[in-house]
């Protein structure tokens, strides 16, 4: 029987009230080496995925972005660099944001707010665009978070979500599994000293819903014209939805 008080934390089931603490422990622990680990474990390709997100969004000089679970600020900075007006990074981890603030200290169009995606401290209809990059998978209440993002977007606003997804091709999937389950936790241990954090990362990717289910989640939260694009054969997917 399904226990509704439990949620996935990687392959483990944990109490809903516990998951956020466990997720915070992961990101506080790896924050100092988070960017380096992204470069190593994706062989630098996460930069292309993030550029693809920004290209699809095509920022305009009048647009304000809310980058939810923005971490060390890569997406927000790319949005500004591509011509966006301003960006506010919202993230629950002060440690992750501190790294971002140092990294982008010269960018005065970035603002930083410690906040949960489940309760975003912003008025209704206040942002033109929202991004969610590798955040959704970590949330305890994904539906509530998507509803919050919908709430703070202006009518005509758009969300693009970048997240790990599912590879269709069997051969590639086996190769990717080998890399993820055998190699990534070892690299994580060597570089961050926290092997468990990278075991969680890999397990949480496998437990994450498939592309079509994410489309349903976005539609349930109110988004229209929902669609997705696979990148790198479905290792990650971009999902887009509009508040119309
Ligand atoms: C994998 S990192 C992604 C960071 C950044 N968006 C990127 O693409 O590199 C996930 C981020 O989600 C944040 N996070 C986890 N749970 C959150 C929540 N409930 N609300 C807001 N941020 C959250 C973590 O602190 C972490 O910075």
State the end-to-end CA separation: 38 Å
Task: Give the domain tally.
Answer: 1
Contiguous low-pLDDT stretches (5 residues minimum) are none
For this structure, the CATH topology is Rossmann fold
Ligand kinds? S-adenosylmethionine
- Give the amount of beta strand, in percent: 15-25%
Whole-number mean pLDDT: 96
- Mind telling me the CATH superfamily name? Vaccinia Virus protein VP39
CATH architecture verdict = 3-Layer(aba) Sandwich
Shape: globular
The helicity comes to 40-55%
Q: What would you call the structural class?
A: alpha/beta
Polypeptide structure, described:
There is one protein chain. The protein is α/β, with parallel strands linked by helices. It has one domain (20-167, 199-243): Rossmann fold (3-Layer(aba) Sandwich), CATH 3.40.50.150. It has nine helices and nine strands. It has helices spanning 16-30, 34-41, 45-57, 74-81, 94-103, 142-152, 170-192, 195-207, 211-220, and strands at 6-9, 12-15, 64-68, 86-91, 110-114, 127-133, 153-164, 224-231, 236-243. The chain has a seven-stranded mixed β-sheet, with helices on both faces. Strands 1-2 form a two-stranded antiparallel ribbon. Helix 3 (45-57) packs across helix 4 (74-81). The relative contact order is 0.15. S-adenosylmethionine binds next to helix 1 and helix 4.
């Amino acid at each position: 029987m399904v226990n509704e008080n439990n949620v996935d934390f990687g392959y483990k089931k944990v109490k809903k009230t516990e998951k956020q603490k466990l997720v915070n422990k992961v990101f506080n622990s790896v924050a100092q080496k988070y960017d380096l680990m992204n470069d190593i474990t994706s062989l630098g390709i996460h930069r292309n995925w993030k550029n693809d997100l920004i290209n699809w969004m095509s920022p305009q000089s009048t647009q304000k972005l809310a980058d939810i679970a923005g971490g060390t600020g890569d997406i927000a900075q790319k949005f500004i660099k591509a011509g966006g007006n301003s960006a506010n990074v919202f993230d629950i981890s002060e440690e992750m944001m501190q790294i971002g603030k140092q990294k982008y200290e010269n960018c005065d169009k970035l603002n930083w707010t410690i906040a949960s995606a489940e309760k975003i401290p912003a008025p209704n209809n206040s942002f033109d665009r929202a991004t969610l990059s590798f955040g959704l998978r970590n949330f305890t209440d994904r539906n509530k978070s998507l509803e919050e993002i919908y709430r703070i977007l202006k009518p005509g606003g758009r969300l693009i979500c970048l997240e790990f997804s599912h590879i269709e091709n069997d051969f590639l999937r086996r190769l990717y599994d080998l890399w993820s389950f055998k190699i990534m936790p070892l690299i994580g241990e060597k570089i961050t000293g926290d092997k468990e954090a990278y075991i969680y990362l890999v397990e949480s990717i496998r437990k994450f819903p498939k592309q079509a289910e994410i489309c349903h989640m976005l539609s349930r939260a109110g988004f229209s014209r929902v669609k997705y694009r696979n990148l790198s054969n479905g290792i990650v997917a971009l999902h887009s939805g509009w508040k119309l």
